[in-house]
């Protein structure tokens, strides 16, 4: 087992390595971006990367305070599902109105890689391509889909 400090240090090291690995990769629009802290440009739409001792995942989280507006955002993603699948594949899980880590109601579209640990450096060669391919796919989708959300602002 790792101490809390050692675990935090290993996670920090992983995200630093991943960030450096992704630095030369440009967005679908040809821009330099921060893949770890991806900015969607929409206040209530977040692309999240996460990894712990048992799994890793990537998600789109919709966290509007107004649950009805959040549902409209989710329904807009559903309307774009064919485009999403073309860019990202069909192995994503779609959940409307689930409880987020902070206890708030969110909607989430995500996929996970199981039986991996961010704390095992030997798993990093599985984690990095998982995050890379899925972030690039999400970026490709978002570069054309983001305009569909402007009316919901």
Number of helices: 4
Question: What is the overall silhouette?
Answer: globular
The poorly predicted ranges are none
Give the overall average pLDDT. 94
Largest sheet geometry? 4 strands, antiparallel
Strand tally: 4
Overall domain count: 1
End-to-end CA span: 46 Å
Strand order of the largest sheet: 1-2-4-3
Indicate the percent of residues in helices.
40-55%
Over all CA atoms, what is the radius of gyration? 16 Å
The secondary structure category is alpha+beta
Approximate strand percentage: 15-25%
Query: Element order, helices and strands?
Result: HEEHHEEH
What's the topology here?
Elements: H1 4-22, E1 45-51, E2 55-62, H2 67-79, H3 81-88, E3 93-99, E4 105-114, H4 124-145
Antiparallel strand pairs: 1-2, 2-4, 3-4
């Amino acid at each position: 087992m790792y101490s809390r400090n050692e675990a935090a240090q290993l996670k920090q090291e992983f995200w630093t390595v991943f960030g450096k690995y992704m630095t030369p990769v440009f967005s679908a629009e040809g821009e330099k971006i921060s893949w770890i802290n991806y900015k969607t440009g929409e206040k209530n739409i977040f692309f999240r990367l996460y990894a712990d001792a048992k799994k890793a995942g990537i998600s789109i989280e919709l966290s509007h305070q107004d649950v009805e507006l959040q549902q409209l955002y989710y329904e807009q993603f559903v309307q774009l599902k064919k485009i999403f699948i073309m860019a990202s594949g069909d192995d994503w899980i779609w959940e409307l109105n689930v409880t987020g880590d902070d206890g708030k109601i969110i909607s989430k579209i995500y996929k996970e890689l199981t039986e991996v640990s961010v704390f095992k450096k030997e798993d990093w060669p599985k984690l990095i391509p998982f995050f890379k391919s899925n972030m690039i796919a999400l970026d490709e989708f978002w570069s054309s889909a983001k305009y569909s959300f402007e009316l919901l602002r």
